[in-house]
Amino acid sequence: MNRPGNALIAACCLSLVGCTSMVRVMPTTPMNAGDDVVVILNDGSELKGKLARLNAETFELTQKAGQQRLLRQADISTVERPEFSTTRTLLLVLGIVGIAAAYGYAKAATSLMQPR
Fold first, then answer.
1. Residue 102 and residue 100: Cα distance in Å, rounded?
2. Are 40 and 27 within 8 A, CB to CB?
3. What residues have CB less than 8 Å from 75, skipping those under 6 apart?
4. Mean of the pLDDT values across residues 7-13?
5. C-alpha 82: how far from its chain's center?
6. Domain coordinates of the chain in residue numbers?
7. DSSP 19
8. In what order do the strands lie in the sheet with 76-84?
9. Which tens digit of pLDDT belongs to each residue from 25-81?
10. How high is the pLDDT of residue 77?
């Protein structure tokens, strides 16, 4: 079993999580039902979940346990939602390619040093 190769593949897969970043949006920004959001209230508390419904006065959030929370727009400080980041994705891909190249170079150099 090629453990370093498997570790590299696993690292590549796990790093794809880094292709998104949380972006602050106004609570009145057009969003769709089902969007993942983090709502930060005026008191500093944070609620995570999916947007169920949004109108000019209320923001309805469905949390993990299926619990519905109805929030007044006046109680919300900021809303964050994940968005695709081209820059982060490009940097991740370049980093992964660099690691793979270094691994391949090191493996080739080691095999050349071994007596035949």
1. 5
2. no
3. 41, 42
4. 61
5. 6
6. 21-84
7. G
8. 20-25, 76-84, 36-41, 46-54, 58-62, 68-72
9. 766 667 788 888 888 899 999 999 998 888 888 888 898 888 899 999 889 888 888
10. 87
Distance CA 22, CA 37 (A): 9
Minimal CA–CA distance to 17: which of 73, 103, 82? 82
Instruction: Please tell me the total number of residues recorded for the chain in this structure.
Output: 116
pTM of the model: 0.54
Q: How far apart are CA 25 and CA 68, in angstroms?
A: 21
Structure token pair of residue 25: 């949006």
If one counts every other C-beta atom within 10 angstroms of the C-beta of residue 37, the result is 20
**69's tokens:** 């929370």
CATH of domain 21-84: 2.30.30.100
